[in-house]
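Quick one:
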Amino acid sequence: MRELKVVGLDVDGKRIICETDDASEKFILRTDDRLRAAVRGDRSVASQSQSDAEVPNVLRPKEIQARIRAGASVEQVAESAGVDVTRVERFAHPVLLERSRAAELATAAHPVLADGPAVLTLLETVTSALIARGLDPDSVNWDAWRNEDGRWTVQLSWRAGHSDNTAHFRFTPGAHGGTVTAFDDAACELIDPDFARPLRPVAPVAPLAIEEPEPPVQVEEAPEPPKPARTPRARKGKPPVPAWEDVLLGVRSSGQG
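Output:
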């Protein structure tokens, strides 16, 4: 235990300011009947039960349990009260069991859809929805806490990729397991009969504008000048055979002498 020394009174004059020997930390002490009795040396008034001694006067066991029942964690209550976690766990344990039991009962309730309660239970519906979306239904966590109006809020948490997700339902106990109503968008999507829809809709990716390559420019070659047609050479014919009259008369067939 560390020893504190009194520094003075707070500005309101109702609380005592204390600090450690090295003045590294400061504390505020509320003045009450037990403190006054302790200063007077009255042990009968200053003594208290063991359960009251484990938590400060500002946060009694019933207050701890009320906060836990409303959804706070043991660590949160201990931090807000400025006490060790072990001091809060003793009073929080039965309430945590109550919350766990409420979450278990809620999984057996029937989700309320647009046309009435579903035939499947919440657990069956959520399991089918997660499997349809490629997620592991055994990696989810269930929790529940009681609201100020006395109704229970049920929380389902799961991990998809690198993101942590939660869905919340309102649980109403009743016949045949009671009913649960979706409280947020994630819960609505989980109990939606259309299991094909993703839990987190992804915005459509804009198609990339792919520029088609321009067709190569065809360079027309200059027409080649046509090759001159070959003039057929005069064929050398065989010498004409003189007629028999030419032979007899001694003249050419052309009539020249």
